[in-house]
Write a structure and sequence with these properties.
- It is a single chain.
- The protein folds into 2 domains: 78 residues, 434 Repressor (Amino-terminal Domain), CATH 1.10.260; 157 residues, Endonuclease, Chain A (2-Layer Sandwich).
- It is 48% helix and 14% strand.
- The protein contains 12 helices and 7 strands.
- It has a 7-stranded mixed sheet with strand order 1-7-6-5-2-3-4, with helices on both faces.
- A hairpin with a 2-residue loop joins strand 6 and strand 7.
- The N terminus is likely disordered.
């Protein structure tokens, strides 16, 4: 399976240790695949690559459970036969990003484990393809729309606990907006967002909030080169049904074999890295995209819903 594996679902209430960063995960998976493709065992590499002193050390590198060093990663890649400079440069960039402090570390009290991993993966991706059946994708949500959703997810418990609830909402909102700023950074991933038409019709937060969210979607599709929004219209019928209500395919610069799929469920999220499974979801997203509205149709549809919420 080229080193692929099904990663466990991390629940909202999972108190486990922080998740390894995406850079380490992708580089480790890539190195493990290269080794296995050449029929090498862990002990076959030890001693051949000077920077790797033991089989357990190499295992930790491949599992993403230890900090990476660029010279070690590049030495391993070259030992496995990688000569393409673009691929070596991509690996070096991933190592560099894995070493940098991450903004979400200060928000770990407000981020469940599954979301921390998703944010980390998004930050290292070259391309993000996402499908949503119920809500505007998180990377495209306005602050007001996101807050309306979070108010439902974090209900009031008692008048005495309202201050704590508001503080939690504030921190969760800051996480959402800082996460969204990823799309404005140099070298940001290309985002292909596919939404069911019902999302446009659902007045999350009321007419005013929804109108503002739809205007934001219209402006992003019209003006942002890296953001591509399409709608699966009601007329698509059964052919517009996806294999999951919310899924995201993330592609990385090192190698397409390291792509992964994130599947969102009510209790958290799970990740699929098995190449055959990833390919099934890639084909499903491609098929759904072909059945969605064109760019001009998308803009016209969003505009119609803006008018409906105008009052």
């Amino acid at each position: 399976m080229s080193g692929g594996q099904f990663l466990r679902a991390v629940r909202d209430d999972d108190p486990g240790s922080p998740q390894p960063g995406a850079g380490r995960m992708v580089v480790g998976t890539h190195l493990r695949r290269l080794r296995k493709e050449r029929g090498l065992r862990l002990k076959d590499v030890v001693g051949q690559v000077g920077q790797v002193g033991s089989a357990p050390t190499l295992s930790r590198i491949e599992n993403g459970s230890t900090p990476l060093k660029a010279d070690t990663v590049l030495a391993l890649a070259r030992f496995y036969g990688v000569t393409d400079q673009a691929q070596l440069d991509a690996l070096e960039r991933l190592v560099s990003s894995s070493q940098a402090p991450q903004w979400w570390e200060e928000f770990r009290d407000a981020i469940p484990g599954w979301l921390e991993r998703l944010i980390s993966v998004e930050a290292s991706a070259q391309e993000i393809r996402t499908y949503e059946a119920q809500y505007v994708p998180g990377l495209l949500q306005t602050p007001s729309y996101a807050r309306a959703l979070m108010q439902q997810a974090i209900p009031a418990v008692s008048p005495a606990a309202e201050d704590q609830r508001q503080a939690r909402l504030e921190r969760a909102g800051r996480v959402r907006q800082t996460r969204r700023s990823l799309l404005n950074e140099p070298g940001a991933p290309d985002l292909f967002a596919l939404m069911d038409e019902s999302i446009l019709a659902r007045a999350v937060g009321g007419d005013s909030v929804m109108r503002g969210q739809l205007r934001a979607l219209y402006n992003m599709e019209e003006n942002e080169e890296r953001i591509h929004i399409r709608i699966l219209p009601f007329r698509a019928g059964a052919q517009g049904l996806a294999p999951a209500p919310a899924l995201t395919l993330l592609s990385f610069p090192a190698d397409r074999e390291e792509d992964m799929v994130y599947l969102e469920v009510p209790s958290g999220g799970s990740y699929l890295t098995d190449p055959e499974g990833v390919q099934r979801y890639r084909l499903a997203l491609t098929t759904l995209w072909s059945r969605a509205t064109t760019r001009d149709e998308t803009l016209a549809m969003i505009h119609r819903y803006i008018d409906q919420f105008a009052g």
